[in-house]
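>> received
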Amino acid sequence: MTEVFKIYTDIYRINETVYPYVNVDAYLLDLKDKAVLIDTLEEEPNLLDTVRNITAKPLTVILTHGHPDHAGKALTKIIQNHIPVYMNSEDFFLTEYRDQVLDINRLNIEDIEIIDCKGHTPGSVTVKYRDNLFTGDAIGSGAFWMQLKESSSLTELLINIKNLRNRVNDEIKIYPGHYYQPDRVLDISYLDELIELTEMIIDNPEYGEEGDMYLGESHLKYRKAVYHQIYDYLYNPEKI
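>> returned
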């Protein structure tokens, strides 16, 4: 099921929920003379139709990273309609659409700022629009996965999230890729707590409780840390 929520006159949240595994969000910016779609959900193939029911303006798509729940099946119709799709080239290897997307370094849209935030994936980015920050999975949303094979070290993540903190003001409103996890707009305190927790883990790699999971054919061992708003921070203690 896909639902549209109007946040402001120019910002929409588009949620896809397919019980029990999919609950993910894309965001649409309806700007003065163009529209920008941030991420493309997972299983929903007709996201473009949903967007066109909101706006007929020329459309650009930005992918926050290459995982299939954010760079999903809607890309087929989007690309067939010759709509430009941008993502960080460091994440091209994660998507089957790698030969049909453009390097985000070529993107230039007034009022839109791309802030690199490598960590969750090598090419994770956030999208800043005025006092709004759209983060995909780059800083998590209460839950945060840093245990994946493609995830960076926590030391590298810390550099990037501190840089992100320096690029936004204290009034920033944070819209994550899995809105249901906090079930609210996040604020700067969440980013500050993520920085604090990451520093604590780096100082003590055995900070969290041990766990493991099977993801596809991969068996991933991790530790899980909890801190204030962050209730499920998974990390690889061998990639500090």
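>> The two ends are 39 Å apart (CA to CA).
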